[in-house]
Amino acid sequence: MTAQSTLLLLVRHGETPTTGKVLPGRAPGLHLSERGRAQADRVAERLTGLPVHAIYSSPLERTSETAAPSASRTGLPLHHDDGLIECDVGDWTGAALAELAALPQWQGVQHSPSTFRFPNGESFTQMQARMVGALEVLRAAHPAAVVVCFSHADPIKAAVAHAMGTHLDLFQRIMISPGSVSAVEYVEGRPPAVLMVNSTAEPLSGLRVP
To answer: Is the pTM of this model over 0.90?
Structure first.
């Protein structure tokens, strides 16, 4: 890696009581389940041996709670960044996924997300631009460093797709599990390099670091 590279670790928050059942969006008050707290602790353990320089999180409770053990273990402050927040799903906030899957519009979510906007909410295109822009700001603010960013499934999928040069309409093919880590290397003047996607097991100390 060159002196001007930055390694961004993109971490999805841990499980909540509604994971896989409800589309929570940005609704407040959703906390980690017991399994989610264990996943948060595991992320912190996996960071051992990495020279983490900064930790950022979406401002929602479930991401902040996932980031807290990592901040504690590294001794770094936890910074909130609105650019890492979940997609604004508008009128669909809090809806059951089984009910949404029965709607004709759900086909747009799955097969042509680049053309889809959540009713009275954000479009996937806007979400991707926001997330990619936020990561670019963090990359520029932390040259030659390791930065951990705690976010949500769709924003991370969109960022990984962008880094891979994959069209947004294909981003649903990327799996981002609760508590998983994806790693993207950003080198000034070069396309980003995706080093890891949806990793939930092995230590992260083997990653190339600045």
So the answer is: yes
